[in-house]
Amino acid sequence: MTDDDILPVALTNASTLLDYWTPLLARLCIEEGVFDAYGTTWRRDDDVARALGVNPGVLGRMVRALSSRDVFEENADGDHRLTELGQAFLSAHGFPKGVAGFKPWDLHAWAEARHTLLTGEAAFRHHYGTDYFTWMSGHDEIFAEFSEDMKLRTLGLLASGISAYPWPSAGTVVDVGGGSGYLLSAVLGERPDLKGILFDLPAALADAEGYYDGCGLSDRVTITPGDFFDGVPAGAEIYVMASVLHDWSDDDATRILGTCRKAMTPSSALVVYETVLGEGPTSPLSFGLDVHLAVLLKGRERTRSEWNALFRSADLRLTQVINTPGLSWMEVVPGEGEGPPSRASSHAVTRRRG
Ligand SMILES: C[S@@+](CC[C@H](N)C(=O)[O-])C[C@H]1O[C@@H](n2cnc3c(N)ncnc32)[C@H](O)[C@@H]1O
């Protein structure tokens, strides 16, 4: 191969990396039910447009663009059908719609990602003037959508992972930042004599009561609204935090761990369910998500040594890491010290979040 051959190949590959419209089109089509409307058969674009109530000309052009990326194929009559790749997006094939939805509020932050590159601060805060969760707390429908997305994500990640951790058979488990409550219901499903507390911001708990009624778990779960920067329910045997700490900078994550540490008894354990970069089945998406967390939340994914340092900063000690096909369970217990610095002194160090 000569240099003349290499350049066009490199240019084609490079321009593929610059293509931001394919992910946006795919997300739009998921959100608006376009893929599901095509299903697995040949369809006329006009018929699909009529069924969905969308503009037929634009739908046809969007499908043509996705055909150029092998998501659809076209026959001699001009009809379209999803390819094998495209059929992966069908909800009937289990594609988690929520996770890949079209999120204008995330895109506003990404439009200002330069701010994150220059300052290390979250572009979301730069755009909206407040942090992600405070902003969502003022937008009930968006928070409900976020919690449903998280539920679908956690459900997929936990599929074969819940029994990998040896949950205690009795006592109380507190799910800190538990969101939809799905993880807690899965743990209680494993241990019939365990009781649970679902702890999260008030706006995140809007659907929790109905969810536990539906699961028949209302008598075993207490729903407790609160802010984990102020404190979490004290004295439980076990605390669990799933996909929470990666939303926060090291300073804020230390403060959250500090309130957990204060709530724990000497025999309590805290189980953190997160990615450990470089261990377990780290998905290639982890590195993209790491940057997404920086832009939206000033958060980050962490390696084992970064997790270790974080736990130590809150006087917690990592005792075991259990890798599962989803994320990893990290068990931590109180350290030998007096606990983390007092709230007053940690606030003096950093008052701002996100
Ligand atoms: C990425 S979601 C994870 C939800 C759930 N643990 C899961 O794995 O599906 C982060 C959760 O942290 C909660 N959260 C954010 N800030 C909080 C705060 N200050 N106090 C309590 N919960 C908070 C959010 O409401 C959200 O439910």
Description:
The protein folds into two domains: 3-91, Winged helix-like DNA-binding domain superfamily/Winged helix DNA-binding domain (Arc Repressor Mutant, subunit A); 123-349, 3-Layer(aba) Sandwich (Rossmann fold), CATH 3.40.50. Strands 5-4-3-6-7-11-10 form a seven-stranded mixed β-sheet, sandwiched between helices. It is 45% helix and 15% strand. It is built from 17 helices and eleven strands. It has 354 residues and is of the alpha/beta class. It has helices spanning 3-17, 21-31, 34-38, 45-52, 56-67, 84-87, 104-110, 113-119, 123-128, 132-137, 140-158, 182-190, 208-215, 250-263, 285-297, 304-313, 343-349; strands at 72-74, 80-82, 171-176, 194-200, 221-225, 238-242, 269-274, 276-277, 302-303, 316-323, 328-334. Helix 4 packs across helix 5 (56-67). The relative contact order is 0.09.
